[in-house]
Amino acid sequence: MQIPYGRQNISEEDIKAVSEVLQSDFLTQGPVVPEFEAAIAQYCNVNYAFAVNSATSALHIACLALGVQAKDRVWTSPISFVASANCALYCGAQVDFVDIDAKTYNMCPQKLEKKLIEAKKEGVLPKVVIPVHLCGQSCDMQAIHKLSKEYGFSIIEDASHAIGGKYLGKPIGNCEYSQITVFSFHPVKIITTGEGGMALTNDAEIGAKMARLRSHGINRDTQTMTKEPDGPWYYEQIELGYNYRMTDMQGALGLSQFKRLDDFVSERHKIADKYADLFKDINIVTPYQGETNYSAFHLYVVRVRPDQKNITHKEMFVRLRDSGIGVNLHYIPIYRQPYYAKMGYKPDDYPEAEKYYSEAITLPIYPGLTELQQKEIVKHFEKPYPTGYQTIF
Ligand SMILES: *Cc1c(COP(=O)(O)O)cnc(C)c1O
User: How far is the CA of 193 from the centre of ligand 1 (A)?
Assistant: First the structure.
């Protein structure tokens, strides 16, 4: 038996919704994607939502819409998927990282402020900061937003983990403290479209720009064309965009999945609560939940302390994998990736990220994971370890 760390949940209704699109007139650019966008915009209480073919694409057009270009600087969290940083490199910008908070593992606002003070002195302030809501728990957006006003940067929330979560009682994605929020609909995320993502904003101009960029930079709105249309066929490419569109098949799956979003998230909370209960008497660090936060619980990360039962982090990880439990490590600090390491980042600049990387293990969490499976998983943390145990590395 192999238990994955996360997996999609596909219902008969989901299958029916996709089949209906396959039998309809439009496979892409049909009526379903706008319906999906409207449903998410309403749920998040945000003005505009643009579906695209991945969160990576959404992050890219978000950076472009905020004017990120060569010589600009973009800061993000080192404990994230590489896409959170790659989007800035696509625009020719430079990337830097802000160390994480020891408790939440999200970008630390105090460290952000410290770094901003230094950057201001040197005249190297960031144009955009991309906080990542790790595991589905929002960053301290009020603090980051306050700094954005003081130091003049824009904010893209990478909420790839966080659809269905809340911050200060309001839905993540409402863009109250940011210019743009991005969701991912990759199959391991909270809801899926196979591949897919979405960019949300309250700003009409940023929205119009993202809408163009996802479809070749083309404008079809006669109201805003640069000249009188040559005829009814006319459209204008006014900037260099991409084909980042979502198909209607994907939109149909997303819309159908969306109907179960709140159920998915509450089921994830039940699983997290059960883990907390099972780990009660075990010396392991379970996820901290801030009072202002309702996490979407995309990931359940525990930390193995170095002083624990003679077990190293790597040994515990291997033991779980060897027992058929698909644990993972989210994430390898981005600056450690060979592609980034050669740009000269120093791991010593990110002590909390380094510590996290040496202790974190992602345990399975997804709707459908049973209590029996959870007990099975936790049992491995209770077993004393044979001394002299060798890992396969
Ligand atoms: C999954 C993920 C992405 C990329 O999402 P895709 O939809 O696969 O492109 C970006 N950022 C974070 C934090 C993610 O977890």
Answer: 13
**Gap from CA of 260 to ligand 1 centroid (Å):** 21
pLDDT at 310 over 90: no
Q: Return the best residue to mutate from 8, 56, 61 for the ligand 1 pocket (most ligand atoms within 8 A of CB).
A: 56
pLDDT (0 to 100) of residue 393: 31
- How many CA atoms are closer than 13 Å to the CA of 231, on its beta-carbon side? 1
- Ligand 1 atom with the smallest distance to the CA of 83 is 10
For residue 13, give the DSSP letter: H
**Token digits of residue 330:** 């989210």
CA distances from 28 to 24, 141, 240, 252 (A): 10, 35, 21, 11
pLDDT value, residue 95: 98
Cα-to-centroid distance, 244 and ligand 1 (Å): 15
Per-residue confidence (pLDDT) for residue 309, from 0 to 100: 58
Q: What percent of the chain has pLDDT over 70?
A: 96
- For the chain, the domains span 3-258, 261-379
**Can you tell me the mean pLDDT for 325-334?**
97
Q: Is the peptide bond before 331 cis (omega within 30 degrees of 0)?
A: yes
| pLDDT interval class at 308 (50, 70, 90) | low
Is CATH 3.40.640.10 the right assignment for the domain spanning 3-258? Answer: yes
Residue type, 85: A
Give the right CATH number for 261-379 from 3.20.20.80, 3.40.190.10, 3.90.1150.10, 3.40.50.300: 3.90.1150.10
What is the Å distance from ligand 1's center to 157 Cα? 12
